[in-house]
Write a structure and sequence with these properties.
One of its GO terms (molecular function) is integrin binding. Residues 1-19 form the signal peptide. One of its GO terms (cellular component) is membrane. This protein has two helices and 27 strands. By secondary structure, the chain is mainly beta. Strands 19, 22, 23, 25, 26 and 27 form a six-stranded mixed sheet that branches. It is rod-shaped and about 110 Å long. Mean pLDDT is 83; it is low at 290-312. Bound molecules: 2-acetamido-2-deoxy-beta-D-glucopyranose (6 copies). Residues 249, 258, 260 line the site of one 2-acetamido-2-deoxy-beta-D-glucopyranose. One 2-acetamido-2-deoxy-beta-D-glucopyranose is lined by residues 28, 41, 43, 45, 63, 65, 68, 70.
Length: 312
């Protein structure tokens, strides 16, 4: 009998609520996150002031308003707690769940990588996120110059306790990495909210020993009567200096020279990370730049080892 009356009462309350167009029986937030050890308010909007909570966490405080009831609980459990607000102490089957999860921000996020990288070689970045929880809500992003180059979201079943989580990323260093800032970021996705913790930045320098190419330093140079820019450059980081020598002759790069500079040159490119050498033949062709002249030029070009340079 009392059961029927209570049900009737509930129906009336809900009906009133609907006609007021305001109070619906629901959890204001069905999913809550709290720092481990902190407290959080469970809150249900309800037409019934006798609405009550069942919670497995320690109750710190209670509060109610004209159309809500709330309970403050202490979140000191790594298990996920599902708690309920019941519409009435006498009716068990009208209830709304509220899930509460404890989290912990990382105590530290560190990045480990060499700050000086050789272009073209493999390099490794190690990110370590210390004492974070829960692991399944964690994403580790690695950024280069602000762009994400690696992203790992853990997911999976609920992990109890704080964890230290590492992420290793391997890449091939390139000139584009020079002077770039690298960092690791830990992101905890708590419902719609994100908690981010970033490591310090590491500013990377890249280097490359000198290297000759036919494009930057042709093995054949033909000179005419006019002065002409002689260009023999080498690739490298930092940009190498290039000097070319022949018996009794010396051409600094980009020097304007005339036909009397013919010869078999050895060009040496140098920066602090190494050197490279190349033969360059400069010959005179009187037909170039004027109709007069007959000498024809032959060019020869070979990559040589540095010891040859010393012989000159
Ligand atoms: C519970 O929710 C109501 C409605 O949103 C709000 O007015 C009230 O302040 C909340 N109470 C607590 C303790 O958060
Ligand atoms: C974070 O880790 C770095 C490197 O291990 C250390 O130097 C620094 O003191 C740590 N910071 C904190 C707040 O623990
Ligand atoms: C982390 O990286 C992913 C994948 O690139 C991206 O969608 C997400 O927005 C990044 N998160 C943050 C906070 O930068
Ligand atoms: C790289 O990081 C350093 C140290 O955090 C900062 O001083 C510098 O401005 C950053 N450079 C760029 C290009 O963001
Ligand atoms: C080439 O000619 C220039 C000017 O005509 C002269 O100064 C220079 O010494 C000559 N070089 C050689 C190697 O003969
Ligand atoms: C350059 O080398 C070639 C081939 O060894 C040789 O025939 C030529 O005489 C040389 N030229 C000079 C100016 O030494």
């Amino acid at each position: 009998m009392s059961r029927i009356l209570l049900t009737l009462y509930t129906v009336i309350l809900l009906h009133q609520a609907r006609s007021d167009d305001a109070v619906e029986f629901k959890a204001i937030n069905s999913e809550l996150f709290a720092l481990f050890g902190d407290s959080v308010w469970l809150n249900c909007s309800t037409p019934n002031p006798k609405t009550y909570f069942e919670s497995r966490l320690f109750t710190k405080d209670n509060a109610k308003g004209s159309n809500w009831v709330a309970r403050e609980v202490v979140v000191d459990d790594w298990e996920i707690s599902t708690m309920y607000c019941y519409l009435s102490p006498d009716i068990d089957d009208i209830k709304r769940p509220i899930t509460v999860m404890a989290y912990a921000l990382p105590s530290n996020v560190t990045i480990d990588m060499q700050p000086l990288l050789k272009e073209g070689e493999e390099s490794t970045i190690t990110c370590t996120v210390h004492d974070v929880a829960p692991q399944e809500l964690l994403t580790i992003n690695i950024t280069r110059g602000g762009d994400v180059i690696d992203s790992k979201s853990y997911g999976g079943p609920h992990v109890l306790q704080r964890r230290t989580v590492g992420r290793v990323y391997t890449f091939t260093a390139s000139r584009g990495d020079n002077n770039m800032n690298f960092s690791c970021e830990a992101i905890l996705q708590l419902g719609r909210e994100q908690k981010r913790t970033k490591s310090p930045d590491i500013t990377v320098q890249t280097y490359a020993p000198p290297e000759f190419s036919e494009r930057l330093c042709p093995s054949t140079l033909l000179l005419g009567k006019e002065k002409k820019q002689v260009s023999c450059l080498a690739d490298g980081n930092p940009p190498p200096t290039v000097e070319c020598k022949a018996f009794g002759r010396h051409i600094k790069n980009m020097e304007a020279v005339t036909g009397n500079m013919t010869g078999n040159y050895t060009c040496l490119a140098t920066n602090q990370y190494g050197n490279a050498a190349k033969f360059v033949t400069v010959e005179y062709d009187g037909n170039i730049g004027s109709k007069v002249g007959a000498e024809v030029i032959v060019v020869l070009l070979t990559a040589i080892i540095t010891s040859v340079w010393d012989v000159l």
